[in-house]
Structure formats: structure tokens, C-alpha cells
Automatic annotation (TrEMBL):
Keywords: Membrane, NAD, Oxidoreductase, Transmembrane, Transmembrane helix, Tricarboxylic acid cycle. This is malate dehydrogenase. The chain holds residues 84 to 413 of 413 of the full protein. It catalyses: (S)-malate + NAD(+) = oxaloacetate + NADH + H(+). Its EC number is 1.1.1.37. The chain crosses the membrane at residues 7-25. The lineage of its organism: Eukaryota, Viridiplantae, Streptophyta, Embryophyta, Tracheophyta. One of its GO terms (biological process) is oxaloacetate metabolic process. It is an enzyme of class 1 (oxidoreductase). Belongs to the LDH/MDH superfamily. MDH type 2 family. GO terms for molecular function: L-malate dehydrogenase (NAD+) activity.
Amino acid sequence: EKEPVTVLVTGAAGQIGYALVPMIARGMMLGPNQPVILHMLDIEPALEALKGVKMELIDAAFPLLRGVVATTDVVEACKDVNIAVMVGGFPRKEGMERKDVMSKNVSIYKTQASALEEHAAAYCKVLVIANPANTNALILKEFAPSIPEKNITCLTRLDHNRALGQISEKLNVDVSDVKNVIIWGNHSSTQYPDVNHATVATSNGKKHVRELVADDNWLNSEFITTVQQRGGAIIKARKLSSALSAASAACDHIHDWVLGTPKGTWVSMGVYSDGSYGIQPGLIYSFPVTCDKGEWNIVQGLKIDEFSREKMDKTAQELIEEKALANSCL
Ligand code: NAX
């Protein structure tokens, strides 16, 4: 039998955490034959709730779950972890300045980066979900220099999946037949959901989404804003932010990273920019990637038209500004 993989979930007493930990324990992140040990970290005010989540995990008798740690001690939480899913952070509250929120998150991500740096297993893979996700990941990278930069990523798979969902609804096709949308840039409302390379598998072979959706106007405006603002629409409807879809996307992200993307398919991940597509190196920017043997690679050579270029640069600009703001908080 396989050795268990240790997965850290920070902010595990929160809403995404509550949806995510059972998915991990069921094998949705690492596959149905991979035993897991869960490390759950939260802060003191949430400790009782966190203990409740641990009780429920025990009560669910998940066959793959080989151990659960519920703690407020960041060192204990990070000990020997192979995969770290960073969901905990400081949320923006009404009336708070952007700089104040950034400053709180910079300080959280500095501390947690150092703990991962010292205590995680070698080659630990990190996924940052907490907002501002791209910039939190960048801070984590700066303060965990021994973790390879290729191992530090942020979540834009939810946005990617939302884009697949919108196309599937529009064309009334199975979502699994829609492939190769792209989310470029920041996990924020400046992200650019791009369908120029997206396809749908049909009984007559593979067709381009642009060919099937006759309405260019919808693709160039409503589709983009719907995906960009989907998070807000969920809050309006649920009075709470996305949780099950975020948890599911987190599983997809790690699943594909570790186990590989299917041939001919790419996914979107926030990764450390190497200058591909003219995006300034040193940002965590969402690109189309394929994964193989536990490594992602940016899909190269896609044609970028003027419409896309402008949107890709605009979201990069926002990340440059966020990076400057984060640096001013150090
Ligand atoms: P919740 O407020 O329900 O949960 C957050 C949890 O983090 C709480 O239990 C809190 O006590 C804990 N926490 C706070 N500071 C911590 C620290 N220093 N160490 C450990 N735990 C800490 O939020 P939830 O709805 O679960 O969302 C979590 C984060 O995901 C938020 O930052 C949110 O903005 C972000 N999101 C990111 C998405 C993405 O696609 N990248 C989509 C969903 C989500 O909005």
C-alpha cells in the first residue's frame, strides 16, 4: 500500500475548509488509492469549531484518512507536510483600507512561509487560496526561499471552471466536453477569461467555441464579466462567498498538478512568471499550463490578438501594483 501523503489546510474551520477537508479525505484531491493525513490549522477564536470538524472527520470513517491534526500551532501544522493548501487569511471588512488588509495578510503569509520553509517535507507543493491569492503566494515565495519557486502556486482554477460552466450552459453541452479556456492574470475582477483557444467535443469532432457561439458580442462582453464577477453573484445569492466550488477547484488544481493533465488539455494555474507572453517575470500570474510528473509547464505559442493583449496587460498591471503595496507593508 502507498505511504500516506500529509496535506495541510490552513483556515480549516472556515467555510471553504469545511467543504474541502472531506473531499481530500475521500480521495478527490490525490486519487482513490492514496491514503492521506490531514493537518488543519486555524486561529485561537476558531479552535473549538476546528475541533468539531476533526470530530466529524472521525465520525465519517473515511477509509483513506490515516490521521488528523487540529491545531493553532503553525509549527505543528507545517511539520512534514507534502501539500499545503492555504485557505486562512484576513478578509477585507467594510471600511477597511486596501493597505490594511494587505498588511495583515503579508504578516500572516510571512509567518506561515517561514514555518513551511523550516518544517515542511522537501519538495512540498503549495496552493494559496486566501485573497489576495496571487500576492499572498508571492509573499510566501519570498519568505520560503528553499521551496522551489515552481512549487508555489495560487488558485485560479475556480475561475477556469466557472468559464467552462458558462460555455457549457450557453451551448447546452456537457461541461466535460468543453476544454482549454484560459484565465490570465490575477484572481480578481481584472482577470481575463479567454475563449479564443477553447474547444467543444461534438459528435462531428472538435469545434472551436468561437465557431459554435455565433454571438461574438456575448463572448467579448457578457461572458467575460459574468466570470469576473461570479464571486460577487454567489455572495449576493447565498449571503456567503463561494465555498463548495472553491473547495472542488482546489482539489482539481492539486489533482492535475500531481497526477497530470489529460493529453491535449490544459488548465489555468497562478504560477511564477518566467516572462512568457510578455508578462513581467516575478509576478504570480495565471497562465494556461499542462502538468506531467508533478510539474507544470506554461503552454507556449498561443496566438494573442490585440483584444487579449490589452486585457492580459491590464491584469498584470494590477499585480504589479499589488506587489508594490505588499512590499510597502514588509
Ligand atoms: P472563512 O472566513 O469562512 O474562513 C477563513 C478561516 O481562516 C477562518 O476559520 C479563520 O479563522 C482562518 N484564519 C484567519 N487567519 C488565519 C491564520 N493566520 N492562520 C490560519 N487560519 C486563519 O473564509 P472562506 O470563505 O473559507 O474563504 C477563505 C479565503 O479564500 C478568503 O480569503 C477568500 O477571499 C478566499 N477565496 C479565494 C478564492 C480563489 O479562487 N482563489 C475563491 C473563494 C474564496 O473567496
